[in-house]
Design goal:
This protein has about 450 residues and is of the alpha/beta class. The chain is built from ten helices and 28 strands. The strands form seven sheets. Strands 1, 21, 24, 25, 26, 27 and 28 form a seven-stranded mixed sheet that branches.
Protein backbone atom coordinates (compact mmCIF):
# COMPACT_ATOMS: atom_id res chain seq x y z
CA UNK A 1 0.00 0.00 0.00
CA UNK A 2 1.35 3.44 -0.98
CA UNK A 3 1.89 6.07 1.67
CA UNK A 4 -0.25 9.21 1.36
CA UNK A 5 1.26 11.80 -0.95
CA UNK A 6 3.84 9.45 -2.49
CA UNK A 7 4.08 7.60 -5.76
CA UNK A 8 3.97 3.86 -6.03
CA UNK A 9 7.50 2.55 -6.14
CA UNK A 10 9.06 5.93 -5.38
CA UNK A 11 12.47 5.60 -3.71
CA UNK A 12 12.74 6.27 -0.03
CA UNK A 13 14.94 8.82 1.71
CA UNK A 14 18.58 7.98 2.35
CA UNK A 15 20.90 9.52 4.87
CA UNK A 16 23.18 11.05 2.22
CA UNK A 17 20.38 13.17 0.78
CA UNK A 18 18.30 14.36 3.74
CA UNK A 19 19.08 16.06 6.99
CA UNK A 20 17.12 15.12 10.12
CA UNK A 21 14.47 17.81 9.60
CA UNK A 22 13.60 16.67 6.07
CA UNK A 23 13.77 12.98 6.89
CA UNK A 24 11.24 13.51 9.66
CA UNK A 25 9.08 15.57 7.32
CA UNK A 26 8.72 12.59 5.02
CA UNK A 27 6.96 10.58 7.70
CA UNK A 28 5.25 13.07 9.94
CA UNK A 29 3.70 15.75 7.69
CA UNK A 30 -0.07 15.47 7.20
CA UNK A 31 -1.51 15.08 3.74
CA UNK A 32 -3.10 18.53 3.87
CA UNK A 33 -1.60 20.87 6.45
CA UNK A 34 -4.54 23.24 6.12
CA UNK A 35 -6.81 20.69 7.79
CA UNK A 36 -4.37 19.06 10.20
CA UNK A 37 -5.06 19.70 13.88
CA UNK A 38 -2.72 22.19 15.50
CA UNK A 39 -1.80 21.53 19.14
CA UNK A 40 -3.07 24.34 21.36
CA UNK A 41 0.41 25.02 22.79
CA UNK A 42 2.01 25.52 19.33
CA UNK A 43 3.67 28.96 19.13
CA UNK A 44 2.20 31.42 16.59
CA UNK A 45 5.23 31.26 14.29
CA UNK A 46 4.98 27.50 14.04
CA UNK A 47 1.18 27.55 13.67
CA UNK A 48 1.68 29.53 10.44
CA UNK A 49 -1.61 31.29 11.09
CA UNK A 50 -3.03 33.62 8.45
CA UNK A 51 -1.25 32.21 5.39
CA UNK A 52 -0.22 29.07 3.57
CA UNK A 53 3.08 28.53 1.79
CA UNK A 54 2.96 29.35 -1.92
CA UNK A 55 3.34 26.51 -4.44
CA UNK A 56 6.76 26.60 -6.10
CA UNK A 57 5.64 27.40 -9.69
CA UNK A 58 3.28 30.09 -8.39
CA UNK A 59 6.05 31.67 -6.29
CA UNK A 60 8.23 32.05 -9.40
CA UNK A 61 5.34 33.66 -11.29
CA UNK A 62 4.71 36.12 -8.45
CA UNK A 63 8.40 37.08 -8.34
CA UNK A 64 8.52 37.70 -12.09
CA UNK A 65 5.32 39.74 -12.04
CA UNK A 66 6.29 41.74 -8.95
CA UNK A 67 9.11 43.46 -10.81
CA UNK A 68 6.68 44.82 -13.41
CA UNK A 69 4.78 46.83 -10.82
CA UNK A 70 7.58 49.34 -10.17
CA UNK A 71 8.42 52.51 -12.07
CA UNK A 72 9.82 52.00 -15.55
CA UNK A 73 13.61 51.95 -15.43
CA UNK A 74 15.18 54.47 -17.82
CA UNK A 75 17.52 53.04 -20.49
CA UNK A 76 21.20 53.99 -20.25
CA UNK A 77 24.01 54.47 -22.73
CA UNK A 78 26.68 51.86 -22.00
CA UNK A 79 30.20 51.57 -23.48
CA UNK A 80 30.63 48.34 -25.41
CA UNK A 81 33.13 47.07 -22.88
CA UNK A 82 30.51 47.22 -20.11
CA UNK A 83 27.46 46.01 -22.05
CA UNK A 84 27.95 42.25 -21.97
CA UNK A 85 24.86 40.53 -20.55
CA UNK A 86 22.61 43.60 -20.78
CA UNK A 87 19.50 43.84 -22.96
CA UNK A 88 19.14 46.33 -25.80
CA UNK A 89 16.64 49.09 -25.03
CA UNK A 90 16.87 50.57 -28.54
CA UNK A 91 17.27 48.84 -31.90
CA UNK A 92 20.78 48.38 -33.23
CA UNK A 93 20.55 50.13 -36.61
CA UNK A 94 23.40 50.14 -39.10
CA UNK A 95 25.27 53.43 -39.04
CA UNK A 96 26.99 52.66 -42.35
CA UNK A 97 27.02 50.15 -45.16
CA UNK A 98 28.79 46.91 -44.23
CA UNK A 99 31.27 46.57 -45.72
CA UNK A 100 31.56 50.29 -46.30
CA UNK A 101 33.57 49.77 -49.52
CA UNK A 102 34.32 46.87 -51.85
CA UNK A 103 36.88 44.63 -50.14
CA UNK A 104 38.89 41.53 -50.93
CA UNK A 105 37.62 38.36 -49.30
CA UNK A 106 40.95 36.55 -49.80
CA UNK A 107 44.69 37.04 -50.07
CA UNK A 108 45.69 36.93 -53.74
CA UNK A 109 45.59 39.26 -56.72
CA UNK A 110 43.03 41.79 -57.87
CA UNK A 111 42.77 41.27 -61.64
CA UNK A 112 41.17 43.25 -64.46
CA UNK A 113 39.90 41.58 -67.65
CA UNK A 114 41.01 38.21 -68.92
CA UNK A 115 44.45 36.81 -68.14
CA UNK A 116 47.32 36.45 -68.27
CA UNK A 117 48.03 39.66 -66.37
CA UNK A 118 50.97 41.96 -65.81
CA UNK A 119 51.56 42.31 -62.06
CA UNK A 120 52.26 45.70 -60.53
CA UNK A 121 55.18 45.98 -58.16
CA UNK A 122 53.32 47.61 -55.22
CA UNK A 123 50.58 45.62 -53.49
CA UNK A 124 47.34 46.72 -51.81
CA UNK A 125 47.06 46.26 -48.03
CA UNK A 126 44.14 46.54 -45.62
CA UNK A 127 43.79 49.88 -43.88
CA UNK A 128 45.15 51.97 -46.74
CA UNK A 129 43.34 54.52 -48.87
CA UNK A 130 41.85 54.13 -52.33
CA UNK A 131 44.29 52.26 -54.62
CA UNK A 132 44.92 53.18 -58.27
CA UNK A 133 42.45 51.72 -60.72
CA UNK A 134 43.37 48.68 -62.81
CA UNK A 135 43.30 48.49 -66.58
CA UNK A 136 42.55 45.35 -68.57
CA UNK A 137 45.42 42.90 -68.38
CA UNK A 138 46.72 44.24 -65.05
CA UNK A 139 46.86 42.58 -61.62
CA UNK A 140 48.03 43.70 -58.21
CA UNK A 141 48.79 41.77 -55.02
CA UNK A 142 46.00 42.30 -52.47
CA UNK A 143 45.42 41.31 -48.84
CA UNK A 144 42.20 40.14 -47.23
CA UNK A 145 40.11 43.15 -46.19
CA UNK A 146 41.94 45.56 -48.48
CA UNK A 147 40.02 48.01 -50.62
CA UNK A 148 39.40 46.78 -54.16
CA UNK A 149 40.90 48.95 -56.96
CA UNK A 150 38.38 50.43 -59.37
CA UNK A 151 37.63 48.32 -62.46
CA UNK A 152 38.71 45.09 -60.75
CA UNK A 153 37.08 42.05 -62.38
CA UNK A 154 37.76 39.51 -59.62
CA UNK A 155 40.15 38.44 -56.90
CA UNK A 156 42.31 35.46 -57.79
CA UNK A 157 43.27 33.48 -54.70
CA UNK A 158 46.98 32.98 -54.01
CA UNK A 159 46.64 29.21 -54.41
CA UNK A 160 44.87 29.59 -57.77
CA UNK A 161 47.56 31.60 -59.58
CA UNK A 162 51.11 31.12 -60.86
CA UNK A 163 53.64 33.41 -62.50
CA UNK A 164 55.72 32.53 -65.56
CA UNK A 165 59.36 33.32 -66.29
CA UNK A 166 58.37 36.78 -67.55
CA UNK A 167 56.50 37.52 -64.32
CA UNK A 168 53.06 37.34 -65.88
CA UNK A 169 50.22 35.94 -63.77
CA UNK A 170 48.19 32.95 -64.97
CA UNK A 171 45.05 31.47 -63.40
CA UNK A 172 45.12 27.75 -62.69
CA UNK A 173 41.32 27.54 -62.79
CA UNK A 174 38.42 29.52 -64.24
CA UNK A 175 37.91 33.03 -62.87
CA UNK A 176 34.30 34.17 -62.41
CA UNK A 177 33.40 37.84 -62.56
CA UNK A 178 33.20 39.26 -59.04
CA UNK A 179 34.62 36.19 -57.29
CA UNK A 180 36.03 36.71 -53.78
CA UNK A 181 34.98 40.36 -53.71
CA UNK A 182 32.80 41.51 -50.83
CA UNK A 183 30.74 44.31 -52.40
CA UNK A 184 29.84 47.40 -50.43
CA UNK A 185 26.61 46.85 -48.43
CA UNK A 186 26.71 43.05 -48.81
CA UNK A 187 25.85 42.55 -45.10
CA UNK A 188 23.67 45.62 -44.59
CA UNK A 189 22.87 49.10 -45.81
CA UNK A 190 23.00 52.18 -43.63
CA UNK A 191 19.76 52.41 -41.62
CA UNK A 192 18.99 48.68 -41.74
CA UNK A 193 17.90 47.23 -38.39
CA UNK A 194 20.54 44.76 -37.31
CA UNK A 195 19.01 43.70 -33.98
CA UNK A 196 15.70 44.58 -32.30
CA UNK A 197 14.90 45.88 -28.82
CA UNK A 198 15.11 43.07 -26.28
CA UNK A 199 18.20 41.40 -27.72
CA UNK A 200 20.61 40.07 -25.11
CA UNK A 201 24.10 41.51 -25.57
CA UNK A 202 26.40 38.55 -26.18
CA UNK A 203 30.04 38.68 -27.36
CA UNK A 204 28.81 38.34 -30.95
CA UNK A 205 26.44 41.31 -30.47
CA UNK A 206 29.36 43.39 -29.18
CA UNK A 207 31.35 42.46 -32.29
CA UNK A 208 28.47 43.39 -34.61
CA UNK A 209 27.93 46.71 -32.82
CA UNK A 210 31.61 47.57 -33.13
CA UNK A 211 31.68 46.61 -36.81
CA UNK A 212 28.62 48.80 -37.39
CA UNK A 213 30.41 51.80 -35.87
CA UNK A 214 28.98 51.89 -32.33
CA UNK A 215 31.01 52.97 -29.30
CA UNK A 216 28.04 52.61 -26.94
CA UNK A 217 24.69 50.83 -26.95
CA UNK A 218 21.39 51.83 -25.34
CA UNK A 219 20.49 49.14 -22.83
CA UNK A 220 18.35 48.31 -19.82
CA UNK A 221 20.53 48.97 -16.76
CA UNK A 222 21.46 46.16 -14.43
CA UNK A 223 19.17 46.11 -11.38
CA UNK A 224 21.09 47.05 -8.23
CA UNK A 225 21.24 44.46 -5.47
CA UNK A 226 22.43 44.73 -1.87
CA UNK A 227 23.25 41.69 0.26
CA UNK A 228 22.65 41.76 4.02
CA UNK A 229 24.37 38.85 5.78
CA UNK A 230 22.65 38.03 9.08
CA UNK A 231 23.87 35.91 11.98
CA UNK A 232 26.23 36.38 14.93
CA UNK A 233 27.65 32.89 14.43
CA UNK A 234 29.40 33.62 11.12
CA UNK A 235 33.16 33.84 10.59
CA UNK A 236 34.75 35.57 7.62
CA UNK A 237 38.07 33.71 7.77
CA UNK A 238 39.77 30.69 9.30
CA UNK A 239 38.38 27.39 10.52
CA UNK A 240 35.08 26.97 12.39
CA UNK A 241 35.53 26.94 16.16
CA UNK A 242 33.65 27.36 19.43
CA UNK A 243 30.23 27.11 17.83
CA UNK A 244 31.11 29.60 15.08
CA UNK A 245 30.92 28.63 11.41
CA UNK A 246 32.25 30.08 8.18
CA UNK A 247 29.97 32.35 6.19
CA UNK A 248 29.44 30.58 2.86
CA UNK A 249 26.78 32.96 1.52
CA UNK A 250 28.78 36.21 1.72
CA UNK A 251 31.31 34.99 -0.86
CA UNK A 252 28.74 33.05 -2.94
CA UNK A 253 25.85 35.46 -3.39
CA UNK A 254 27.48 38.51 -5.07
CA UNK A 255 28.89 36.64 -8.10
CA UNK A 256 25.74 34.55 -8.35
CA UNK A 257 23.55 37.65 -8.34
CA UNK A 258 25.82 39.21 -10.96
CA UNK A 259 25.37 36.10 -13.09
CA UNK A 260 21.60 36.59 -12.74
CA UNK A 261 21.93 40.11 -14.14
CA UNK A 262 22.37 42.28 -11.04
CA UNK A 263 24.95 44.88 -10.10
CA UNK A 264 25.83 44.16 -6.46
CA UNK A 265 26.32 47.55 -4.85
CA UNK A 266 27.10 46.41 -1.30
CA UNK A 267 27.53 43.40 0.98
CA UNK A 268 26.86 44.27 4.61
CA UNK A 269 27.24 42.06 7.69
CA UNK A 270 24.42 42.82 10.12
CA UNK A 271 24.55 39.98 12.64
CA UNK A 272 21.47 39.20 14.72
CA UNK A 273 20.50 42.82 15.30
CA UNK A 274 16.92 43.83 14.49
CA UNK A 275 17.60 47.56 14.78
CA UNK A 276 20.64 47.37 12.47
CA UNK A 277 18.64 45.30 9.99
CA UNK A 278 15.80 47.84 9.96
CA UNK A 279 18.27 50.71 9.42
CA UNK A 280 19.99 48.85 6.58
CA UNK A 281 16.69 48.11 4.82
CA UNK A 282 15.39 51.66 5.25
CA UNK A 283 18.61 53.20 3.95
CA UNK A 284 19.11 50.89 1.00
CA UNK A 285 18.66 52.40 -2.45
CA UNK A 286 19.01 49.05 -4.23
CA UNK A 287 16.28 47.62 -6.43
CA UNK A 288 16.63 44.30 -4.61
CA UNK A 289 17.72 43.61 -1.04
CA UNK A 290 18.78 40.03 -0.35
CA UNK A 291 18.99 38.86 3.26
CA UNK A 292 20.49 35.59 4.48
CA UNK A 293 18.89 33.69 7.34
CA UNK A 294 16.43 34.99 9.89
CA UNK A 295 13.30 34.09 7.90
CA UNK A 296 11.87 31.46 10.28
CA UNK A 297 10.29 32.00 13.69
CA UNK A 298 13.24 31.66 16.07
CA UNK A 299 14.21 34.11 18.83
CA UNK A 300 16.77 35.92 16.63
CA UNK A 301 14.90 35.61 13.32
CA UNK A 302 14.23 39.30 12.76
CA UNK A 303 13.28 39.52 9.08
CA UNK A 304 9.51 39.14 9.51
CA UNK A 305 9.24 41.59 12.45
CA UNK A 306 11.35 44.18 10.61
CA UNK A 307 9.25 43.89 7.46
CA UNK A 308 6.10 44.32 9.52
CA UNK A 309 7.61 47.30 11.35
CA UNK A 310 8.44 49.16 8.12
CA UNK A 311 5.06 48.35 6.53
CA UNK A 312 6.38 46.07 3.80
CA UNK A 313 3.95 44.01 1.71
CA UNK A 314 4.62 40.28 1.90
CA UNK A 315 4.13 38.81 -1.57
CA UNK A 316 5.46 35.32 -0.84
CA UNK A 317 5.77 34.03 2.72
CA UNK A 318 7.08 30.50 2.51
CA UNK A 319 7.22 28.23 -0.55
CA UNK A 320 6.35 24.57 -0.88
CA UNK A 321 9.87 23.64 -1.93
CA UNK A 322 12.68 21.68 -0.25
CA UNK A 323 15.20 22.89 0.61
CA UNK A 324 14.36 26.50 1.24
CA UNK A 325 10.70 26.55 2.25
CA UNK A 326 11.07 29.53 4.72
CA UNK A 327 12.09 31.90 1.87
CA UNK A 328 10.08 35.09 1.36
CA UNK A 329 9.53 37.97 -1.04
CA UNK A 330 8.36 41.41 0.07
CA UNK A 331 7.79 44.79 -1.53
CA UNK A 332 9.44 47.26 0.83
CA UNK A 333 8.60 50.52 -0.90
CA UNK A 334 7.97 51.75 -4.43
CA UNK A 335 9.80 49.49 -6.82
CA UNK A 336 12.13 48.03 -4.19
CA UNK A 337 11.85 44.38 -3.19
CA UNK A 338 13.44 42.15 -0.58
CA UNK A 339 14.15 38.45 -1.00
CA UNK A 340 14.71 36.69 2.30
CA UNK A 341 16.86 33.60 1.85
CA UNK A 342 17.10 30.83 4.42
CA UNK A 343 20.47 30.60 6.16
CA UNK A 344 21.34 27.07 5.06
CA UNK A 345 23.50 27.32 1.90
CA UNK A 346 21.63 24.99 -0.46
CA UNK A 347 18.32 26.36 0.84
CA UNK A 348 19.61 29.83 -0.05
CA UNK A 349 20.43 28.62 -3.57
CA UNK A 350 16.87 27.36 -3.83
CA UNK A 351 15.62 30.81 -2.81
CA UNK A 352 17.86 32.50 -5.37
CA UNK A 353 16.49 30.40 -8.23
CA UNK A 354 12.89 30.50 -7.00
CA UNK A 355 12.47 34.19 -6.16
CA UNK A 356 15.56 36.27 -7.02
CA UNK A 357 16.14 34.89 -10.53
CA UNK A 358 12.68 35.64 -11.98
CA UNK A 359 12.54 39.05 -10.30
CA UNK A 360 15.99 40.08 -11.56
CA UNK A 361 15.26 38.65 -15.00
CA UNK A 362 12.18 40.85 -15.30
CA UNK A 363 14.01 43.95 -14.00
CA UNK A 364 16.82 43.39 -16.50
CA UNK A 365 14.31 42.66 -19.32
CA UNK A 366 16.02 39.35 -20.03
CA UNK A 367 14.07 36.68 -21.88
CA UNK A 368 12.83 33.77 -19.82
CA UNK A 369 14.84 30.61 -20.42
CA UNK A 370 13.13 27.89 -22.41
CA UNK A 371 11.91 25.15 -20.11
CA UNK A 372 13.38 21.76 -20.88
CA UNK A 373 13.43 18.27 -19.44
CA UNK A 374 15.77 15.28 -19.39
CA UNK A 375 15.28 11.76 -18.09
CA UNK A 376 16.84 11.07 -14.71
CA UNK A 377 19.78 8.70 -14.55
CA UNK A 378 18.68 7.49 -11.11
CA UNK A 379 15.51 7.61 -9.04
CA UNK A 380 15.07 10.57 -6.68
CA UNK A 381 12.93 10.43 -3.57
CA UNK A 382 10.40 13.21 -3.08
CA UNK A 383 8.81 15.17 -0.31
CA UNK A 384 5.19 14.12 0.29
CA UNK A 385 3.74 17.53 -0.64
CA UNK A 386 6.55 19.87 -1.71
CA UNK A 387 8.69 20.26 -4.81
CA UNK A 388 12.34 19.28 -4.34
CA UNK A 389 15.31 20.94 -6.09
CA UNK A 390 18.12 18.43 -6.46
CA UNK A 391 21.60 19.11 -7.92
CA UNK A 392 22.36 17.06 -11.05
CA UNK A 393 25.13 16.70 -13.60
CA UNK A 394 24.24 16.37 -17.29
CA UNK A 395 25.75 13.37 -19.02
CA UNK A 396 24.64 12.81 -22.60
CA UNK A 397 20.86 12.76 -22.61
CA UNK A 398 20.53 12.07 -18.86
CA UNK A 399 20.52 14.08 -15.64
CA UNK A 400 22.38 12.26 -12.88
CA UNK A 401 21.33 13.23 -9.32
CA UNK A 402 24.15 14.09 -6.93
CA UNK A 403 24.48 13.20 -3.26
CA UNK A 404 25.27 15.77 -0.56
CA UNK A 405 22.11 17.69 -1.36
CA UNK A 406 20.85 18.46 2.14
CA UNK A 407 19.84 22.06 2.97
CA UNK A 408 23.17 22.87 4.66
CA UNK A 409 25.35 21.27 1.97
CA UNK A 410 27.11 22.89 -0.99
CA UNK A 411 29.20 19.89 -2.05
CA UNK A 412 26.54 18.65 -4.48
CA UNK A 413 25.65 21.97 -6.11
CA UNK A 414 29.33 22.92 -6.45
CA UNK A 415 29.73 20.01 -8.88
CA UNK A 416 26.32 20.43 -10.55
CA UNK A 417 25.25 21.64 -13.98
CA UNK A 418 21.60 22.16 -13.05
CA UNK A 419 18.92 21.57 -10.44
CA UNK A 420 16.25 18.98 -11.16
CA UNK A 421 12.70 20.01 -10.24
CA UNK A 422 11.41 16.87 -8.53
CA UNK A 423 7.62 16.82 -8.01
CA UNK A 424 5.97 15.72 -4.76
CA UNK A 425 6.34 11.98 -4.32
CA UNK A 426 9.63 11.73 -6.20
CA UNK A 427 10.68 10.64 -9.66
CA UNK A 428 11.72 7.29 -11.10
CA UNK A 429 14.82 6.47 -13.07
CA UNK A 430 14.26 7.50 -16.68
CA UNK A 431 11.42 9.87 -15.82
CA UNK A 432 11.48 13.20 -17.69
CA UNK A 433 12.18 15.97 -15.18
CA UNK A 434 12.34 19.76 -15.56
CA UNK A 435 15.81 21.26 -15.14
CA UNK A 436 17.01 24.69 -14.02
CA UNK A 437 20.40 25.52 -15.53
CA UNK A 438 23.05 27.01 -13.28
CA UNK A 439 24.64 30.18 -14.72
CA UNK A 440 28.17 28.86 -15.09
CA UNK A 441 26.96 25.69 -16.79
CA UNK A 442 25.20 27.75 -19.48
CA UNK A 443 27.55 30.61 -20.20
CA UNK A 444 30.61 30.89 -18.00
CA UNK A 445 31.16 32.47 -14.62
CA UNK A 446 30.31 36.15 -14.40
CA UNK A 447 27.44 36.42 -16.83
CA UNK A 448 24.39 34.42 -17.73
CA UNK A 449 23.04 34.39 -21.28
CA UNK A 450 20.03 32.17 -20.64
Amino acid sequence: MTAPGSRAGAPTADSDDLDVEEALALVREPKDDSTAPVPPDTPPAARNEGHRATPWPRAREIAARAARSGARRAPVSVPLGDALGLVLAAPLDALTDLPSFDTSAMDGWAVAGPGPWDVRDAGVLAGHGRPELLTDGEAVRIATGARIPADTTAVLRSEHGRTDAQGRLHATRDVAHGQDIRPRGQECRSGDQLLPVGTLVTPAVLGLAAAAGYDTVTAVPRPRAEVLVLGDELLTEGLPHDGLIRDALGPMLPPWLHALGAEVVAVRRIGDDARALRRAVNRSEADLIVTTGGTAGGPVDHVHPVLERIGAELLVDGVTVRPGHPMLLARTRGGQHLVGLPGNPLAAVSGLLTLAEPLLRTLAARPAPEAYTLPLGDAVHGHPHDTRLVPVVLRGDRALPLHYNGPAMLRGVAAADALAVVPPGGAQQGEETELLDLPWAAAGIGVCFT
